[in-house]
């Protein structure tokens, strides 16, 4: 059973997440020759304040630009 874990900075709408899950599942089915019901996709949305880049939070970098 393939388990795909995707971490994203929060901010996408529900339709985008649904589409991502569907397309990732299709790709795994095609490449690993498994049934769709065997695929698990976990999407974790992380606040920009909890995502660090170069020693700064993503949120603080957005404010700088």
From TrEMBL:
Domain 4-oxalocrotonate tautomerase-like: 2-58
Top enzyme category: isomerase
UniProt-listed Pfam families: Tautomerase
UniProt keyword Transmembrane helix, yes or no: no
Keyword match Lyase: no
Gene3D superfamilies: Macrophage Migration Inhibitory Factor
GO terms, molecular function: isomerase activity
Annotated keywords: Isomerase
UniProt xrefs under InterPro entries: 4-OT, 4-OT-like_dom, Tautomerase/MIF_sf
Active site, per annotation: 2
EC numbers for this chain: 5.3.2.-
Family: Belongs to the 4-oxalocrotonate tautomerase family.
Protein name listed in UniProt: Tautomerase
Naturally occurring in which organism (per UniProt): Brevibacillus fluminis
């Amino acid at each position: 059973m393939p388990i795909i874990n995707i971490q994203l900075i929060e901010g996408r709408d529900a339709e985008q997440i649904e589409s991502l899950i569907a397309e990732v599942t299709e790709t795994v089915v095609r490449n690993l020759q498994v049934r769709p019901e065997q695929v698990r996709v976990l999407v974790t949305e992380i606040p920009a304040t909890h995502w660090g880049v170069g020693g700064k939070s993503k949120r603080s970098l957005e404010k700088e630009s």
